[in-house]
Amino acid sequence: MMPFLSFLSKISLGLLGLVAVSVPAVAEEGNRVLHVREFGAIPDDGLDDMPAINEAIRTATRLGASEVRFDSGTYRLQETVTVGGFGHDNYMIVDHAKNMALVGEVDEDGKPTTRIVRDYELNNEAKPPIQLRIWNSDSVSVRNFVFTNDPPMGSTAKVVSVDRENDVVVVEVLPGLPAYDGMRAASAHAWNLETTKLKRFGSTPGSATLTIGLNVNDYWEVVPDSGGRLLKMEGAGFANRLAVGDGVSWHHKSTDSHNQIEVMYCRDTVFENVSLPNLSNAGMLAGYNHNFTLRRIRFEPENGNLAVGGRDGIHLSNTSGTVLVEDSVFRGLRMDPLVLRKSFGFIREIGDDGSIVVKTNLRTAAEIPSGDSLRFWVGEVPFDLTVESAEDLGDSLYRYRLVEDLPDTVKSDSVVSFQTYSLDEAIIRNCVFAGNFGSAIVNFVENVIIEDCVFSDNAYQIKMGANFVSGAFARNVIFRNNLCEDVSWVDIARRAQPSILMIHSLNRFFEDPRYNRNIEIYGNTFRNPDGPDNAVAIDVRNATDVRIHDNVYEGFERKVSIDPETTADIEVED
């Protein structure tokens, strides 16, 4: 069983600071159903529902209830709770729960009608806490909810005037969306309002957008006598990239905001029929989990907004067992909609007894069980060695004693990964990735199938392989029966080769590795209606044993690019 952090304990009623309430009548043991209304949470009454919702969840956890139910309507989260071990204030907390479901309502079309809203004051420094945090829990499911913010943590406007000589742009904010004097324009993008597609200009992240980075210092100014609905941007370079009638989206913040949902140290977690139309940072950070299912998850902006948020959609980090992402929509995200990654470790010392000292950001590095293995990314073919014991040395350093002898090829700067967090299988199926300023999928892990998906109008390539500092590599991957409608136009990989799908390594700790392996790409349709003439559908680097066959290509002078210096055994049968 995956180890949990030992220092966390069950949240007490005293820590939550809640008033004790009588527990509603429940059904037989193992079939208990609680409803948040019985604890005082009433939708659409404009009052703070956070204490009552948390008390319902706490009571359900204590009694072993199978469900916590919510009515249709809007529940507001205003008050926060500070709980030892969780780092900062929180809204909804599920901790040490087992076999429990949070269940909302749906309309006649099956769409969720239960809205959970972070109710806060919007300003440039606003960073409301995590909306839903699930930790140390087994078999928890979340079904039929909309998780969002009021007001939205971003806005959209229409360009009404452009003065290129003086670099001045005036926009009219769309009805119902926030605007205020001095509002930061972080993660700002240009759109075609008629098609709701991103405007294409530039070939690097900085040149292909209006603002980017974690410390944006461009601010909107309210135009006098406009009722606060006209905003002006001066001297930020917007005028050269916008025209009258364009759409502009932006976010109020691009750094140190909390994620919308966090799931850590859990087993058998399911999110189903959940919508996230507006985000403060990433939509969901999920780490150190075993078996994770995401079905009918929708990242789609609402109420005229063109962008969902300023960061990633779902980040699955150091996951084991199985992953299923199915029937989901990822639209309007500032960065990468779906990321599958795991942590690297870096050998800092080799002991006389063959033990190794590893520096890593893996939170559970001291809890790697005896009998699990480390993978050594050394030489032409990586290999695994069995862990005998693990010891925490402090300062993110850990000593591992191994069952087998350490080969001479392992050096003090060699890189390892932790096979405790390896996937048996991940399936990404029947999903739509469209209009995202990022890579639709970033895959650093093995045993992945991507099938029956649609990729359209995404700024960056679909990426497989390690990035600058984290990994690992894409191995045993199938990419099949997908529709890829547009070439990305931003050279995020700095390869000067526009493509739709890229297999590569950008990691600075390796020199031209060939660790991406056993990848099959077939049955896909690749189209290039808007991309550059020199684009290819598939760009292959840093890989061995790749087979490409039975794909359809439209609008490409070259179908596949293969780097001969960093590849071997690449078969292209198209």
UniProtKB/TrEMBL annotation:
Signal peptide annotation: 1-27
Top-level division of the source organism's lineage: Bacteria
Key words, A-Z: Signal
Name the record gives this protein: Right-handed parallel beta-helix repeat-containing protein
Organism: Puniceicoccus vermicola
Biological classification of the source: Bacteria, Pseudomonadati, Verrucomicrobiota, Opitutia, Puniceicoccales
